[in-house]
Amino acid sequence: MQVCVIGCGYVGLTTGAVLADLGHNVSCVDIDRSKISTLRRGDVPIYEPGLSRLIAENTASRRLSFSTEIRESIVGSSIVMIAVGTPPLPQGGVDLSALEAVVEDLGAAIKKPSLIITKSTVPPGTNDWVAESLSQRGLDEDHFDVVSNPEFLREGSALADTMNPDRIVVGARTPSAVEIVRDLYRGIDAPYIVTNLAGAEMIKYAANAFLATKISFINEIAKICDACGVSVEDVASGIGADHRIGPHFLRAGLGYGGSCLPKDIRALTHFAEGHHQEPHLLKAAETVNNLQIDVYLNKLLKEVLKNKGTLEFSNLQITVWGLAFKPLTDDTRSSPALRLVKRLVDTGCQVRTFDPVARATIEGADSCSKQYRSLQGSQALVVATEWNDFVEANWSKVLSKMDGRIVLDTRNCLDPAQVQRAGLEYLAVGRP
Hints:
CATH class of the largest domain: Alpha Beta
Number of helices: 16
Low-confidence stretches: none
Structural class: alpha/beta
Strand order of the largest sheet: 3-2-1-4-5-6-7-8
Largest sheet: 8 strands, mixed
CATH architecture of the largest domain: 3-Layer(aba) Sandwich
Shape: elongated
Order of helices and strands: EHEHHEHEHEHEHEHEHHHHEHEEEHHEHE
Radius of gyration: 24 Å
CATH superfamily of the largest domain: NAD(P)-binding Rossmann-like Domain
Helix content: 40-55%
């Protein structure tokens, strides 16, 4: 098939590369000329394991190309896939301006029967609006159909999630549209969930809201465990063994972040309130997540008080390892690690940061390019992202570089015994 993918972010690039690898001819288009120039040079503007190789292979085979000419690409394609960003608005709603611009391009460029597939996360009712808008622009309904086909990829494992998904959700208006989607994904073995347009849109939001709630739940339990000397990991194992609950997303820590969960739970809350529903559980999940920074700062403050007899962070130098919201990505959007660094700076700390991949400029913090050099002169080390570089650190070397001995593990990812054997003080929440 001839496929046009509009939007060259995580979703667009990953989906485009996989579709090309399945044998389709794919044109990935974006209005960002700098991004397209980068891709044409053979460089990938995001860090995602395996993606550079897959793009290079399919670009060389001429199945994958990149362009800024959106309407020209639409004209030559039988399938148009929308993967533009839908960022949050200040009040919690969704900014659909990029999608609206695409609809304008579609209305002007579609000249032959085309299937429009929306991958972007959009509120229920949006794809119905897309179909209605195209009709109002004079587009013959025999020339297009609209499908909602949300993505469920995780940054850091996006290729595996695209090639081996748990399910393929298709919201469609006609059986023929569903069959075209099946043809598009032929070669990918996964169960299909077929529903209407709004049903597919709601599945995406509900899935992310449930995952966010699960994370906040285990973080709430971790605080209770911490108060009574119980291992939250034992609790997570005990409840995760129940097939009705499952073991995933039960690791206590600094909280969820990234480009999806925070904005999607806010968007669903905003949507619910707009339909006169009070989403108590969604609000509670977000509240718990927002308080996680305080939980770990209080833990660190108590240890500083015990060691130095002061309740002040000022004049302390603290190193934070990790800026990305999770390992195997350079994405710092809504990263708890970044929020932690900013809070430490606000309390008067001198903060030094290191991340193997992610880069971020934080006012008042010094970014270091070397992992162990970042420790020089610090009284405490905070591990904020569970990179293997940190999990497998040389703790004797860590001690030799630091002025202090405190290691705060905000991801419960380190081996406490290894850290303590090196002569360091290990801190965590829910790990007695």
